[in-house]
Amino acid sequence: xxxxxxxxxxxxPPPEKDSFFARLRRRQWxxxxxxxxxxxxVLAVVVxxxxxxxxxxxxxxxxxxxxxxxxxxPAEMFDNYARLARDDxxxxxxxxxxxxxxxxxxxxxxxxxxxALMMARMTRMVGxxxxxxxxxxxxxxxxxxxxxxxxxxxxxxxxxNALTTLGLISQPIPFLIDEPTGMMSLMLASIWMTxxxxxxxxxxxxxxxxxxxxxxxxxxxxxxxxxxxxxxxxQMRPFFVIVLLLLSLDIARAYDIVRxxxxxxxxxxxELIWTYAGQLAIRNSQFGxxxxxxxxxxxLGVAFTFYLFRQMMNVRRDLG
Amino acid sequence: xxxxLRNTTRRRVHWRDVGANWLALTVLTLAALPAIWIILxxxxxxxxxxxxPPIWIPQSITLEAFDSLFGLNPEIAAGxxxxxxxxxxxxxxxxxxxxxVPIGTAAGYAxxxxxxxxxxxxxxxxxxxRAVPGIALSLPxxxxxxxxxxxxxxxxxxxVYMALNIPFTAWLMxxxxxxxxxxxxxxxxxxxASHWQTFWKIDLPLALPGLGAAAVFAFLAAWNxxxxxxxxxxxxxxKTFPVGLFDFTGQFTVDWRGMAAMSxxxxxxxxxxxxxxxxxxxxxxxFGAVKG
Lengths: 320, 292
What we know:
The complex is a heterodimer. Chain A is an all-alpha fold. Chain A has helices spanning 2-9, 16-56, 79-86, 88-120, 126-134, 141-151, 158-165, 181-207, 211-219, 224-235, 237-250, 254-261, 273-282, 287-318. In chain A, helix 6 packs parallel to helix 12 and helix 11 (237-250) packs antiparallel against helix 14. The longest helix of chain A is centred in the first third of the chain and has 41 residues, at 16-56. Chain B folds into two domains: 2-76, no CATH class; 82-290, MetI-like fold, CATH 1.10.3720.10. In chain B, helix 4 runs parallel beside helix 7, helix 4 crosses helix 10 (208-224) and helix 7 (154-178) packs parallel to helix 13 (256-290). The longest helix of chain B has 41 residues, at 2-42. Chain B is globular, with a radius of gyration of 25 Å. At the A-B interface, helix 1, helix 2, helix 4, helix 5 and helix 6 of A face helix 1, helix 4, helix 5, helix 6 and helix 7 of B.
């Protein structure tokens, strides 16, 4: 401490050897001290509970029957998973979830990219445009769910009202009940939620590209499509990775939307693995089975994120 | 010849730009229309909202919906304890932000400045926790929190949100710290500053805008969170806005206008933050892509 103060005041040049070890020691411990609180809290609130959930998924734990917690029988540990494998609703939910993820991620990416390219060309009213773009970001996912639940409602819904007023339909369409309009409505709501973030990041990426690249391409007679294909897309690769990472991390937020719009119904038509897990736990108190279900969802999400994380690290390394 | 060519080129570009302006504004307005409709609904009389055939153009503006939300007018009180939800939401979000930002910032600084053994693993663990769906996490959390008596309490919920916010804060701050030239650190080191002094006196003040953005993200994440709150809270003592929103849905009827009014209340912090912080927010999100 005293040597630190002395060194700070610049009066006392530190003895070379001492300072080397002191620096080494500090360099060793400092980053760990800075990360340990974060790591401990996250281990306590996320990793440990998930490990516990993994254990519960091997037991027939039922919330209303406390004696079932300790009923861990090695021979029956995969019972929950076996039950899920035989459960048609589970496969349906899994299929719906994969379709939901693929469609919403790709559509958000495409639409967001289109918006970004369009906004990058804007010369006036850029401020108001940005504000308009960010409006959906002000809505919590539950609110987005509520909003679209109302719009697609069969009796008081705006979409049906508008179509009736315009004379396009005589009978209201039960969007959230029919198939496949139910899933489509959910996807639309989810895309509406994610497009702004995608657009903002990709817009920043597009604006960071130097004009010289495009000028040079124009001189060489490149078409708009060629510029897009050979300059914009490859140059913006790191931004796409960041967007994908953000989207994959937040994909389960769609639960909020689905919960308020259809809650997986009717008759499991719009069931996703997240809503099904919630139902098994909340309505049926089958925590063992629900935990097995959650594990599938976690594996799905973690695998996707892990893949994208490695992509991001590679891009960072490429850029130096 | 050349001058004419340049002229036509310029004019064509000009018209294309005007087209882009209008096309973009039109698309954006259409996309924002649902949101604008919700906000409008909160300020319309109930008769108009539920009219059949629908009344598209608002005839009158009223604050009735908010009166009934807060029980100011007993005759039309909604019977939803909005005051409690407001208090819970604000407290939980503020507590979670105040705790997660310092912890996450410290971690982010370590990732940005040091390549220590295990740093990539720790960052990966932190990021992967974000991939755990809230609903999946809420089940074991409920069981564990129940055993320590933290279910249906504000501080229990705030503790969980704090932990969930840390990885994103660390990632965001890592990006912000990387933008500060390393030469500043070297200069401080030559002058004999410790790592802590370099962090506290030099890098942290320079990253203050990033800190603001991180705080906004943390606050909004806690403010909007539904999945965990829906399992961990049961009574007005701890329920937050997103959970309370479901009070408006009965078995057969839904109070659409009440929900719209509550939506407007819930949006206030987001509106303030998005308008104030949009610029630094974008920078923080995209920096990792520009320079590693």
